[in-house]
Amino acid sequence: MGFHKKPTTFIGHVKVKVENLQRSIEFYQDVLGFNILEQTTSTVKLTTDGKTSFLSLEQPENVIPKQGRTTGLYHFAILLPDQSALANIVVHLVGKGVRFGSSDHLVSEALYLHDPDGNEIEIYRDRAPFEWNWNSDEVAMTVDPLDFENLLKYATPSKPWQGMPAETVMGHIHLHVSELKKTEEFYVKGLGMDVVNRFGGQALFLSYGKYHHHVGVNTWNGAGAPAPAKNSVGLESFTLIFDNEGARKQAITNLKRIDADVFEDNNNYITFDPSGNRIELAV
């Protein structure tokens, strides 16, 4: 649908920190159906198509468990290509005895579960954009019960879940932040996103190209929540992919105009949102 490929800016990669890399690899392979693209003693890049990676895991030195009531990862969201894939992974997870939550967001149908370290994962499929309900510039989203009876009609017992489909992508990321005013300025004026939904005074949903959201932010861990320790389980970084070098340079210029720091390291540009969430700016 064009929301996760150029010319739209999109999230190309998420890196999360874990306590025990081997334990996590087993979960992401055996339960979620990823394959390994590259691996070192402390990191692994996961793949669904055998060629590219949109998710990687890192075991930091002296790693500590996930810290509560901090900023950072709320969840990252894996977007499946269709309803049958979502139905088939439901059957697969139930067969594995994996506990998960679920929701119908009007724009999508979603499952929620945690990896062995408590990093939350959303697995979802989008409804067609013509089914989304827009009121001016705001898209309608909600948290309704998922209709499993209807969803499971799309399961294909003759072709059961065989791992993440090759067309799977990183759909969006949702972050805990310490406040919303400066956060909105950072993502809108700095990174060029549009606010497409406001959830009271507690959350914002932002996107490029009229997607329902590439980034969600919330203050549900408390206004003024501190950043977690660098060696804590949780989010290490996420990467935004811009259409071209000109678009990336414009974003860097805009970030500097609002006094956001941008660092360069071998043509790799890095910034941090006001709550300390690390963002890599790539082309």
From TrEMBL:
Pfam families: Glyoxalase. SUPFAM superfamilies: Glyoxalase/Bleomycin resistance protein/Dihydroxybiphenyl dioxygenase (SSF54593). It comes from the Bacteria. InterPro entries: Glyas_Bleomycin-R_OHBP_Dase (IPR029068), Glyas_Fos-R_dOase_dom (IPR004360), Glyoxalase_1_CS (IPR018146), VOC_core (IPR037523). Keywords: Metal-binding. Residues 10-126, 169-283 form the VOC domain. GO terms for molecular function: lactoylglutathione lyase activity; metal ion binding. This is VOC family protein. It comes from Neobacillus novalis.
